[in-house]
């Protein structure tokens, strides 16, 4: 895989925060002397090192810079100084699916189907490149101004030929094989698709609890209760995805993603039309200008300085 392209920080004007994470924040920025707005992911090097996430971040940059798909956020390149690493990403102005889902409660089943179909194509594409995503959740799906989704945040993504053993992901979305530390592969992504389909249709996670340990116990028990108004075809697909037995989980059988794409819940989806973004969208976010951030939550801008690293301590310098 090729390395990401080096950019110059001085080429960008930096504006308000769009989101925050464990190593830093994402800010709106504009390339000087152009009308192009970007999302600048600002990562604290000292935090990345302290939390032993150097490999994850290098993975994220290398993987993202080698991807090209209509439903995956594009990465232009990166820049750095002694304190921070900056990833230059496409700005997706419609906000997170998480925010939208919270505002409406739950989605009509045809609306959920439209989004789930795009996630299916994202995973099918990543898996052909032997990339496992491992961190699907509504916070990592952005809604573009055309109403289609873009997958973002590749911090847990990994190129895996066989199996890997790192525990990572969001509690509610973890597959049983990750919890049991048996080694996991591409099938974990199809499990998370099952969780997402459930959450979009029901408005809550299937294994929800205040206490992460209780969530893990529910996942390992594997009993999924469906609300009475849950679409029966969506329910059928969720049951095929939330299967602990990998030899029975859809997406992991010999037909791969086709078992999911041919499921009756997706019978209204023309996959070629979807990929070329020719299907009508159920919701189009209101975006008034190229720099409109009103679909994102507001964040206080005060941010303590991260300590500068000496060149000898900086694992990103030769990168």
What would you say this structure looks like, in words?
InterPro entries: AGC-kinase_C, Kinase-like_dom_sf, Prot_kinase_dom, Protein_kinase_ATP_BS, Ser/Thr_kinase_AS. One of its GO terms (molecular function) is ATP binding. ATP binds at residue 41. Strand 2 and strand 3 (37-44) form a beta hairpin. The protein is globular and about 55 Å long. The chain folds into two domains: 9-93 and 291-311, 2-Layer Sandwich (Phosphorylase Kinase, domain 1), CATH 3.30.200.20; 97-275, Transferase(Phosphotransferase) domain 1 (Transferase(Phosphotransferase), domain 1, Orthogonal Bundle), CATH 1.10.510. Helix 4 runs antiparallel to helix 6 (187-202) and helix 6 (187-202) runs antiparallel to helix 8. It is built from ten helices and nine strands. The chain is α+β, with helices and mostly antiparallel strands. It has helices at 45-50, 54-65, 97-104, 109-128, 176-179, 187-202, 212-221, 232-241, 258-261, 271-275, and strands at residues 12-20, 24-31, 37-44, 75-80, 84-90, 131-132, 141-143, 149-151, 158-159. The mean pLDDT is 94. The strands form three sheets. The chain has a five-stranded antiparallel β-sheet. Strands 6-9 form a two-stranded antiparallel ribbon. Strands 7-8 form a two-stranded antiparallel sheet. The longest helix is centred in the middle third of the chain and has 20 residues, at 109-128. It is 30% helix and 15% strand. The two termini are 13 Å apart.
């Amino acid at each position: 895989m090729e390395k990401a392209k080096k950019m110059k920080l001085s080429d960008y004007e930096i504006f308000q925060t769009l989101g925050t994470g464990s190593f830093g924040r994402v800010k709106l920025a504009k390339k000087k002397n152009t009308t192009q707005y970007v999302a600048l992911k600002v990562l604290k090097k000292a935090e990345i090192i302290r939390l032993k996430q150097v490999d994850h971040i290098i993975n994220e940059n290398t993987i993202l810079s080698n991807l090209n798909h209509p439903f995956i956020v594009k990465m232009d390149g990166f820049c750095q100084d002694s304190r921070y690493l900056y990833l230059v990403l496409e700005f997706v102005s419609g906000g997170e699916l998480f925010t939208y889902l919270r505002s409406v409660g739950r989605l009509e089943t045809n609306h959920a189907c439209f989004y789930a179909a795009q996630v299916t194509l994202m995973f099918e594409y990543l898996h052909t490149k032997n990339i496992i995503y491992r961190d699907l959740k509504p916070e990592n799906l952005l809604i573009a101004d055309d109403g289609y989704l873009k997958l973002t945040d590749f911090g847990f993504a990994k190129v895996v030929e066989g199996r890997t053993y790192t525990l990572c992901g969001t509690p509610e979305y973890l597959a049983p094989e990750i919890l049991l530390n048996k080694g996991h592969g591409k099938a974990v992504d199809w499990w998370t698709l099952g969780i997402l389909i459930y959450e979009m249709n029901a408005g809550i996670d299937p294994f929800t609890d205040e206490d992460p340990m209780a969530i893990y116990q529910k996942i390992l028990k594997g009993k999924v209760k469906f609300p009475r108004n849950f679409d029966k075809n969506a329910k059928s697909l969720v049951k095929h995805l939330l299967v602990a037995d990998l030899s029975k989980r859809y997406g992991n059988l010999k037909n791969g993603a086709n078992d999911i794409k041919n499921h009756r819940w997706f019978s209204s989806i023309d996959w070629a039309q979807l990929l070329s973004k020719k299907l009508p969208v159920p919701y189009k976010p209101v975006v008034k200008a190229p720099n409109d951030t009103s679909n994102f939550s507001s964040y206080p801008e005060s941010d303590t300085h991260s300590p500068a690293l000496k060149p000898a301590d900086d694992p990103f310098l030769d990168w």
